[in-house]
Known about the structure:
By secondary structure, the protein is of the alpha/beta class. It folds into 2 domains: 6-127 and 251-304, D-Maltodextrin-Binding Protein, domain 2 (3-Layer(aba) Sandwich); 128-249 and 312-340, Periplasmic binding protein-like II (D-Maltodextrin-Binding Protein, domain 2, 3-Layer(aba) Sandwich), CATH 3.40.190. The chain has 14 helices and 10 strands. It has helices spanning 3-17, 37-47, 59-68, 80-88, 146-149, 164-174, 184-200, 210-214, 225-234, 263-273, 276-285, 293-296, 301-304, 326-340, and strands spanning 25-31, 50-56, 75-76, 123-135, 158-160, 201-204, 220-224, 238-241, 247-254, 317-318. Strands 4, 5, 6, 7, 8, 9 and 10 form a 7-stranded mixed sheet that branches. Helix 7 runs parallel beside helix 14 (326-340). The protein is globular, with a radius of gyration of 23 Å. The N and C termini lie far apart (86 Å). Pentane-1,5-diamine (N2P) is lined by residues 31-34, 79, 128, 224, 250, 252. Residues 31-34, 79, 128, 224, 250, 252 line the site of pentane-1,5-diamine.
Amino acid sequence: MNLRACFSLSLFVLVLSQPARAAEELNLFGWSEYVPQAVLDGFTKATGIKVNFETYSSNEELLAKLVAGGSNYDLVQPSDYTAEVMIRQKLLAPLDAAKLPNLKNLDAAMRRQPHDPEGRFTVPYMSGTVGIVVNTEKVKTPVTGYRDFFQPRFKERIVVLNDSRELVTWALYSQGAPINTINAANLAKVKPVLAEWVKLVKVFDSDSPKTALLNGDVDLGIVWSGEAAILWNTDQKFRYTIPAEGAHQFIDVLAIPASAKHKEAAHQLINYILRPEVSKLISDAFPYTNPNAEARKLLSAEALANPASYPPAGAKLETFRDIGRAAADIDRLVTDLKSAR
Ligand code: N2P
């Protein structure tokens, strides 16, 4: 073998003996009906990083899986109050702001909220409210609050979120009680109220409560605002109202678990989602309140006028806070009441 052939052969052997570079991927655990597949596909096209996407329909489900360990998630999407729990339990990794230049696109008011005062661990994804949606072709009388909503005449005509903290909150509001003070006295106060309410509900659904309304299976619901916004876009007979007694406002965030194996890729996906044109795609598919000021400039006048996505100023809105162990008491109470109905 001449020298040249020998060199080529050794180069060939060298290349073959290199360990194959693992294809880059990351594991996203996010809410159902919230992250368009087109956005994940666009990210893969732009970066070559494959996204494995698994969904959940409650903060409790997310928290339980993360606490149990062994799940390999690289990016999660808790609501503000659950991010607060995760920060307290040291389940989240601090973010590297240098890797997130698109943070500048966010409305500054949406960052540094009480769940993460320095914005070290979380980046707002979408914000929203929980309110009443009514099929006005079927329900002719105004339904302005929780007490009008849970009426015997609406028995078997109701869909609500399948979410214990939400249900207890509505009952607390109906009694004029504070929503973040969960103690035995307040739970005793709402127990008989909820016992009656759960008997009126036909469908509990946190994934896609719009479906039962669209199908005509039910005539009214208490749902995530983005679900109500989709209903409005489909047919304006579906009207959204922020309950007069007050309503839950959430900021859902992106965060990287402390145990994540692909933190670099997770930062890349966060930064990609913060691109105005990408964030607009999310709003187009799931019209919640967009916290990205640059993306909002790209939204149509019609999208910005959707009363569920952008509620009127002056509504009484409150965020949830970390309530520690009382969360388990809420869960037990609601589970027991549902099984007794
Ligand atoms: C998406 C639900 C997101 C709102 N399906 C819950 N915070």
